[in-house]
Structure prediction request, 332 residues.
Amino acid sequence: MIVHTINKVSALGLCDNLVAEDDKIILLEDGVYLGLQSLPFSVFAIRCDVDARGLRGLLAAQTEVIDYDDFVHLCTEADKVCSWF
Amino acid sequence: MNFAIVVHGAPYSSEACLSALKFARAVLESGHSINRVFFYHDGVHTANSLIAPPQDEAPISEQWQEFGIGNNIELIACIASCLRRGVMDETEANRYEKSGSNLASGFTISGLGQLIDASISADRVVTFGV
Amino acid sequence: MSSILFVFSRPPHGSINAQEGLDALLMGSAFTTCSVLFVGDGLMQLVSGQSTDDLGTKNFSLSFGALKDYGVTGIACSEPDLVARGLNKDDFLIEVETLNAAGMQAFIRNHDKVLNF
Prediction:
């Protein structure tokens, strides 16, 4: 399993066909706007970025809000981390 | 587990520098370690001691300094990126005959080899880009 | 020794990201097994005939020819991104392997670390 971080909406276009079935996506910074829509991946979004942008009640049901310690934990579970920006 | 953290973004210009700090703190709070934080691209601006943000904004560079010094973690600023952007320690300022140096304490200027070495030796490498 | 995959996704010249990414790749190849994957507008780094004389930036594209000498043998690009830009491999400065989605996923899996630029 690979963790892919995405920090802006346009960066999804760089990696959407590189994400394997069991990979996980972490949205941070402006990447959290991607959490508004349903995506065909396992998607997490960083809480402080979600809250700062007023998105808490607006996220798609599948977007799971996490904190930085969860981010770290997901990295430890992954084989590697790939950052898209 | 041992982490290498790479920062590409300048404080205030992008959020990357702040995100990386939050991540770095969470790594230690989770009981893991950090072998090195490598500042590359505009990330080297973090090491500029002349940054003076308004009082009601977080002193991001100082927070990095405190994090590095307080936890004895290497904060390396890439020398090539630094020289292009005017971040210098005394040695480099003298070498290039500049009027002053501005490297913040807690940071060290070193080469790209430090990025590669950290990436190889860490269990995980996480980049905060812009 | 960990192998490192460098992923280049930025076009050249508009920012220094691409040039500093290549610097990191060349340094990395001195230490360990390194490969490179070009995705998105990163493919534009490879286009031949770049001339920066009038722009005043460094034409670092010339350094791509040295990758093989540095021992970087895994050089690949995204096939979907190549097609999307109306390019083909003849437009490139160097020999590049094209990978489909499954190929790129395997390429990433087969390296220990990934550094994105």
Remarks:
- Chain A touches chain B at residues 5, 7, 28-30, 46, 48-49, 67-69, 71-73, 75-76, 78, 80-81, 83-85 (CB under 8 Å).
- DSSP finds three helices and five strands in chain A.
- Strands of chain A lie at 2-6, 24-27, 42-46, 64-66, 80-84.
- The CA atoms of residues 14 and 69 of chain A lie 26 Å apart.
